[in-house]
Design goal:
By secondary structure, the protein is α/β, with parallel strands linked by helices. It has 11 helices and 9 strands.
Length: 274
C-alpha cells in the first residue's frame, strides 16, 4: 500500500532531510520533552511542523528555528494565529541563542537533527550562552550510543558532551518512521545539562586540545598515546601518569574527565620541572 504523503513541502536530500511521520514516535518525543516552567522549547529544524503540533498540544511555548524559507512560510501558514509559536530563521550550527531566547528565560531543546549536522549542533548548544536546561534530540543510533556510552568506553565525542551534561538513551526509531526512510536506525537521547561544566571555561580549549592529542589511538595504552601526542622530557609520560595516579597500561577510552584533568595538570608540572 502506498504511503500517505505528508502535508507541506517535500524533504530535500541535499539537506539530509527525513521527516518523521510516525504519530506514535512523535507523541513519545513530545512526552519526553519537559517544557520549562515560564520558559520555552527551542525546536531545531521543525520542517513541516509535525513535532511542533504535539509540543503545542501539550502546552509548551515553542521557538522554531528553521533554515529553509519554504518551511518557514509553511509553518507560518499552518500555525497562523497561535501566539505560543514563534518561527525564527537560522542555522542551528551558527545561531546565537541570546538573539533567539529572551534574557533569563529557561529553555529546552527538541528536534530531529540532520545526521550530518548533529554533532556540530549539539556542541554549539553546549558551548553557547545561554545554555538549554536539557535537550531531547534524535540522532543516528551509533552517535547516540557513543554520546551515552558507559564509563570505560568513552570516545572524544563522549567526553565533549559529558563535560557539560549527563546523558540518557531513550528509544530507537526505525527507518520506516520517516519520509523518506533513511538508511540507518535513529535514536532519541536526553542530554541533561549540568549546573556547571566539569572543566572550567577558561581551561576548555587547553583541555580539549590535550585530550584530542592523547586520544589519537584510543585503544593503545595511555603511556604510548601520551608519549607520542604530547611533548614531555624523557620518561616524562611515566612520571606524569604516576603523579596523576593513572596506570600506564590503561587505555585513553577508560579515563574519566577528572582523571584527564589530573593528567593534564601533571604533564604541565613535569614539563615545567623538567
Amino acid at each position: 500500500m502506498p504511503r500517505t504523503r505528508l502535508p507541506g513541502p517535500r524533504p530535500r536530500k541535499s539537506l539530509g532531510q527525513h521527516f518523521l511521520r510516525d504519530t506514535g514516535i512523535l507523541q513519545d518525543i513530545a512526552a519526553a520533552v519537559r517544557c520549562p516552567e515560564r520558559g520555552v522549547v527551542l525546536e531545531i529544524g521543525p520542517g513541516t511542523g509535525q513535532l511542533t503540533e504535539y509540543l503545542l498540544a501539550k502546552g509548551c511555548h515553542v521557538v522554531a528555528l528553521e533554515i529553509e524559507d519554504r518551511m518557514i512560510a509553511h509553518l507560518e501558514r499552518r500555525f497562523a494565529g497561535d501566539p505560543r509559536l514563534r518561527v525564527v530563521p537560522g542555522d542551528a550550527r551558527l545561531f546565537d541563542p541570546a538573539e533567539v531566547i529572551p534574557p533569563g528565560m529557561p529553555f529546552a531543546v527538541a528536534g530531529n537533527l540532520p545526521y550530518f549536522a548533529a554533532n556540530p549542533i549539539i556542541r554549539h548548544l553546549l558551548e553557547s550562552f545561554p545554555k538549554p536546561v536539557e535537550m531531547v534530540v534524535m540522532v543516528q543510533r551509533e552517535v547516540a550510543r557513543e554520546i551515552a556510552a558507559a564509563e570505560g568506553d568513552w570516545s572524544l565525542l563522549t567526553i565533549s558532551v559529558r563535560v557539560y551534561a549527563e546523558t540518557e538513551l531513550l528509544f530507537d526509531v526505525a527507518p520506516e518512521a520517516f519520509d523518506p526512510p533513511p538508511s540507518v536506525v535513529s535514536s532519541v537521547i536526553r542530554i541533561n545539562l549540568r549546573s556547571e561544566p566539569l572543566v572550567p571555561p577558561e581551561r576548555n580549549a587547553e583541555f580539549f586540545e590535550f585530550v584530542s592529542r592523547v586520544f589519537r589511538n584510543p585503544r593503545k595504552q595511555i603511556h604510548n598515546g601520551l608519549s607520542r601526542g604530547v611533548w614531555l622530557p624523557p620518561e616524562g609520560a611515566r612520571a606524569a601518569l604516576e603523579m596523576a595516579g593513572i596506570a600506564p597500561s590503561r587505555r585513553p577510552e577508560t579515563l574519566t574527565i577528572s582523571e584527564w584533568l589530573r593528567l593534564m595538570d601533571a604533564c604541565i608540572k613535569v614539563r615545567f620541572d623538567g
